[in-house]
């Protein structure tokens, strides 16, 4: 084996990156990861570039980027002219979406907390403010 360009099996790559083998195959089918070289035996053979790219994908997913957004980020990472500016813009858009989601979740949490506080926890179901709110939700919209 060439020590300058070591080849790794799909299992070894999966272990190093912390994903399962099916995830790697999925990313290949989705075009996020290039098809690997095949050994004479037919087994996939990966290099360190694949490990780096899979880590990139995993970290981007951890930050909430969709697969389509990750595809864009991967393409932009190779763009020496406009890549960094565009990546920053995508990250700002992701942050704005996260902030909007947090605001929505906070609103939902506050509403649920009000309903819980208003519910005595006993009595007839018709008197439960939680059940009334859920039943009347369409009327309130």
From TrEMBL:
Write out the coiled-coil annotation as residue ranges: 88-115
| Alphabetized PROSITE patterns for the sequence | HTH_MERR_1, HTH_MERR_2
Offer one Pfam family short name for this entry: MerR_1
Question: InterPro entries, per this entry?
Answer: DNA-bd_dom_put_sf, MerR-type_HTH_dom, MerR_fam
DNA-binding listed as a keyword: yes
Example GO molecular function: DNA-binding transcription factor activity
Stretches assigned to the HTH merR-type domain: 7-76
User: Per UniProt, which keywords does this protein have?
Assistant: Coiled coil, DNA-binding
Read off the PANTHER family from this record.
HTH-TYPE TRANSCRIPTIONAL REGULATOR ZNTR, REDOX-CYCLING DRUG-SENSING TRANSCRIPTIONAL ACTIVATOR SOXR
What name does the UniProt record give this protein? Cu(I)-responsive transcriptional regulator
Task: Write down the species.
Answer: Dyella marensis
């Amino acid at each position: 084996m060439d020590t300058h360009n070591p080849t790794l099996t799909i299992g070894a790559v999966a272990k190093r990156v912390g994903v399962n083998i099916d995830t790697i195959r999925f990313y290949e089918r989705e075009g996020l990861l290039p098809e690997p070289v095949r050994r004479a035996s037919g087994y996939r053979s990966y290099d360190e570039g694949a490990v780096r790219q899979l880590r990139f994908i995993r970290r981007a997913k951890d930050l909430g980027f969709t697969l389509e957004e990750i595809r864009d980020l991967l393409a932009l990472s190779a763009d020496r002219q406009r890549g960094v500016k565009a990546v920053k813009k995508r990250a700002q858009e992701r942050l704005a979406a996260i902030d909007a989601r947090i605001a929505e979740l906070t609103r939902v949490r506050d509403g649920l907390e009000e309903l819980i506080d208003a519910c005595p926890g006993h009595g007839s179901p018709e008197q439960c403010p939680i059940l009334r709110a859920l039943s009347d939700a369409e009327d309130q919209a």
